[in-house]
Each structure stands twice: as C-alpha cells, then as structure tokens.
Design a protein that fits this description.
This protein has 448 residues and is of the alpha/beta class. The chain has helices spanning 3-15, 32-38, 55-60, 74-86, 115-133, 152-168, 183-192, 206-220, 250-266, 286-289, 313-323, 435-444; strands spanning 46-50, 65-67, 90-95, 101-104, 110-113, 139-144, 174-179, 198-204, 224-230, 270-275, 292-293, 310-311, 334-340, 346-348, 354-362, 370-377, 385-392, 397-401, 407-416, 422-431. It folds into two domains: 3-278, Alpha-Beta Barrel (TIM Barrel); 334-431, Macroglobulin (MG2) domain (Immunoglobulin-like, Sandwich). The chain is built from twelve helices and 20 strands. The protein is 32% helix and 26% strand. An eight-stranded parallel beta barrel has the order 1-2-3-6-7-8-9-10, surrounded by four helices. The protein has a five-stranded mixed beta sheet with strand order 14-20-19-16-17, with no helix packed on it. It has a three-stranded antiparallel beta sheet with strand order 13-15-18, with no helix packed on it. The radius of gyration is 24 Å and the shape is globular.
Length: 448
C-alpha cells in the first residue's frame, strides 16, 4: 500500500476512534505468499492479552486478540474459536511443547523429553489436530511452543509442524516465542526452522521491551510481535538483606506500561502485542503481572467469568491505549505509598511486634478507599497467605502485628474502592529466630 494512503487510512481510523496507531511496514523481501499472509496487518494491529477468558469484557476494552497456551482438543478448540469469532476477535492458537532434555513442571517434578525419539509422533498428532480444527476465521496465527529452549531437535520438529500448516492452510501464519532476543537463538531459528513466519518476543520491563523491539527488527528482520510483556519482574528488583525481591510502586508500573505501548506502536516490524496476564497470577506474587486482582490473593475458585475479579490501573492503561478514548465510569484507585514507618521497604520485626505502615492511595472518582492487608509467606513460590486479612479505611497509616513464628514474610496491601477497582503492592519483613536457636542451629552444622 502506498505510504501516503497508509498514513491517510491510519489518520482516519484514529479520528473515528479506532486507535489504529501501529506503524507496521510490509518488508520488501517477502515472497508473494508471505506478503499475502501479512496483508491484514496493514489495517490490523494485535491489541491482545495472554489468556482467553471473559471475552465480552475484553472486547469492550478494545482487545481484538487473545493468546492461548495449549490446544485442549479439536472440538473444544473449535468451540473456543467460535466464541472468539462471536466477539469479533482473533486468537493465537498455541501448541504446548517441552524442552529438549530436562524439563521441570510447576510442582518441581523433573522429567526428560527427546524430540529425536518422539518427533515423528508429535508431528503426526499435530497434523490430526490442525486438520480437525480446520481453517477457522478466528485463527490469527499458530504458536508452536512457549519459551522452549532453542535446541536443534525442537526447532526441526517446529519446522515440520509449520510446513504442515502451510501445506494445508497457505495463508496461515506460524510463530514461536523467545525470551528477549539473542543473536545465537535467532540464528538457530533461521537455520533449523526457516519456515516460521513470526517471532514472538517475551520481555519484561520498559528497558527490556525497548531493547527487544530494536533487536528483533535488526537481528530477526521480519515481522514479530510482543507475545508476552509487562513491567519489571522479580529478577530485576532490588532485594532485601535476606534476598527477597522488593516490589516496585504501582505508579511506576503504570508509567512504564504506557511507555511500553508507545514503543510497540513505533516499531515498524512489530505486529502488536499480547500482554501477560489477563487474570490473577498466584505464581510469585499477584502484584507482578496481574491485570486483575482476586479478593482472595491465593486465588479463589473461579467460575467461567472473571467478573468477580477487580480491575487494576494497569488494565486501564491497556484499555485506554487500545480504544484511544479517555476512560469513563469507575476507575481503580492507585496505591501511591506503601512503606514501613521511616520510609523503609523492608525491616526486621520481633515476634508479635506491632508494625506501623504508611499508606496512601488516589482514587480518580474520589471514592473512599479501603486498605486490605495480608501477611504472605515470602518463601513460597505460589502466593500463600497466613491468617485473615486486616482491613482499614484510614488514609495515612495502619498497624499490623508481626507473626509470632520466625520466618520471611511479605505485607500485601490492596487499595480497593469496593466498586470493582483495586491496585496492590508488597513490602517485606523478617522475624528472625531467637539468637539461642540460631546459635544452636549453627553449631549443629558439620564443619567443612
């Protein structure tokens, strides 16, 4: 499409409230069939989330794409695609795939997988799946694995799967995902899986997203999308003296997320993004990547709808960016201050000691804000609360008694308006073991 015409189209869509801000430019060195596969992106930007539930709510927020992680079965997959289509949306349909060699599941169980041995069966089973699912209009692209190590055996199987899709559905796009963008990994994909159309890039933090966008454009050099992104993860945080990551302020997360969306829109080869995570994450902490917050931080039993979960300021950033319109109605309060007395983000506490915590939140609608505080076990990989929450409507400070049992803990605080909006953050504390107990433990250790 002529550059001037593309500019006019983009401008008219913006004026119409469609918020088409993408600057995707069709690469010149694509084959005719590849150009056909990417034609839709001259008028379509991926405005997506990772997760495929509560589609009606998502469609109202300007989301046009959802990304899945597994293919549960052909019949169930077609039913999901029908639902996606009903709301005028698209889906990245993804086949879950293992790492070559050692794998470890979320429960810590280690197991082996060998593509050299199982590759033929995998490809055959995958062909049966795609033929049963068929050429569904809601399929935006196929994803082949999520953050799988880029070993040659995996990539050769991926290439066979990609060719199987293209043989049956020539206009379908295929993709795989990588963590950030590394030269050796991209070289391996180009050598062993050259049939792949789209690179999915997964980066967390404002700087990592911007760096990955630049690197993907130069090293990959073909269309890509941000298949997972969000603000900083715990691997980037400062730590307490005892090694527990310190959370970042909600205000910084909101600011960083806005910048990420601007950078994504400005990247000429980027097809858009699917933000992680549409839902409430219980792995690590719900404050890291959750666009929704569960009233029960451990994660309460959920029905098919996510309506009972509270919307966050980060989700509102996404909605405002996707729709191009100022948000109306109830808006989530922003937790702007959370620290121990004296400005500390972490501290040591005696068993049962009252801990004074300074808090503040701004509610755009000027609604009363309630602070709900849980004590969490900071050593647990999944969110694990200890005891019942403390509730306080004061706007300056709250007092929480430290646990009587020694250990490493977090204070998780929700600032919520009780109208469906909330934001959250954590601070860390530790209840040390009594000196006599620590000394006894040290003396019991064998000397090297």
């Amino acid at each position: 499409m002529h550059t001037k015409l593309r500019f006019t189209l983009a401008a008219s869509l913006l004026l119409a409230g469609s918020a088409f801000a993408q600057s995707f430019v069709m690469p010149k060195d694509l084959t005719e069939i590849e150009r056909k596969r990417f034609e839709r992106f001259e008028k379509f930007q991926i405005k997506g989330v990772c997760g495929d539930r509560d589609l009606e709510r998502l469609s109202k927020m300007g989301v046009n794409t959802v990304r899945g992680y597994t293919i549960p079965g052909a019949e169930e997959m077609r039913a999901k695609l029908d639902e996606v289509q009903r709301f005028g949306m698209k889906m990245v349909v993804s086949e879950w795939m293992a790492n070559q060699g050692k794998n470890k599941n979320r429960d810590g169980v280690v197991w082996d997988f060998d593509y050299n041995v199982r590759g033929d069966d995998m490809v055959e089973n995958f062909i049966q799946k795609i033929e049963a699912i068929g050429d569904h209009p809601a399929i935006l692209m196929w994803g082949l694995g999520n953050e799988v190590h880029l070993d040659e055996p995996y990539l050769r199987v991926v290439n066979r799967m990609s060719k199987a899709i293209h043989e049956r559905f020539p206009h379908h796009l295929t993709s795989l995902t990588v963590v950030n963008v590394k030269d050796a990994g991209i070289a391996a994909i180009k050598e062993f899986a050259p049939d792949i159309d789209v690179l999915g890039v997964q980066s967390y933090s404002r700087g990592a997203v911007r760096g990955s966008l630049k690197k993907a454009a130069t090293v990959w050099g073909k269309p890509f999308y941000m298949s997972e992104f969000n603000t900083n993860g715990p691997w980037n945080f400062a730590n307490t003296e005892w090694g527990v990551p310190l959370d970042e302020p909600v205000t910084k997360k909101v600011s960083d997320l806005k910048d990420c969306y601007v950078a994504i829109d400005e990247s000429p080869l980027c097809l858009g993004s699917t933000i992680f995570l549409w839902g409430h994450a219980v792995v690590y902490r719900p404050t890291y990547f959750s666009l929704l917050l569960d009233p029960e931080p451990n994660g309460s039993p959920k029905a098919e709808s996510l309506d009972d979960l509270m919307i966050t300021p980060q989700a509102e950033v996404m909605q405002e960016h996707f729709t191009g319109k100022p948000l109306k109605g109830n808006l989530a309060p922003v937790l702007s201050k959370l620290e121990f007395e004296g400005g500390l983000k972490s501290r040591l506490a005696k068993p049962g000691e009252p801990m004074r915590v300074a808090v503040a939140a701004e509610d755009p609608n000027r609604d009363p804000v309630e602070f709900v505080t849980w004590i969490l076990d900071s050593t647990a990989r999944k969110t694990k609360r200890i005891g019942e929450p403390f509730r306080n409507k004061a706007q300056s400070s709250i007092t929480i008694p430290a646990p009587t049992i020694p250990g490493e803990y977090l204070l998780l605080v929700y600032a919520q308006d009780n109208k469906g909006g909330a934001s959250a953050s954590t601070i860390a504390f530790k209840v040390p073991a009594p000196e006599s107990e620590t000394a006894a433990s040290s003396s019991a250790k064998p000397k090297s």
